[in-house]
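Good day; I would like, with your permission, to put a structural problem before you. What I wish to show you is a protein chain and, alongside it, a tokenised description of its three-dimensional fold. Please examine both parts with care and let me know of anything in them that strikes you as inconsistent. Thank you for your consideration; the sequence and its tokens are set out here:

***
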Amino acid sequence: VQLVESGGGPVQPGGSLRLSCTASGLTFIDYAMSWYRQAPGKERELVASISHGGDSTNYADSVKGRFTISRDNERKTVYLQMNSLKPEDTAAYYCYAGFRFRLSINYWGQGTQVTVSS
């Protein structure tokens, strides 16, 4: 199983980025997908999640109204559209896949760095 993130990079405050995570080696529609992030010296935190069918989403309070998670089950890809970025959004962003029938079966991507700075 592989989860490969892309789309990170430097951006100015107020800017936008779209992260992508493409899965291989698993039946994508059987997995709820999430984005986590971890800033230096801080614990990893859940940013957003989306159900296996894409009909239910959840967001951390800190990103509500600014970030949007979506998925394309045909492309086996989950996205995180990030708008109105703030310096405090700077972190490594990780893709996470959780098997809908057994939570102990899960996978992580390698992470992509987002740096928000002027």
DSSP finds no helices and eleven strands in the chain.
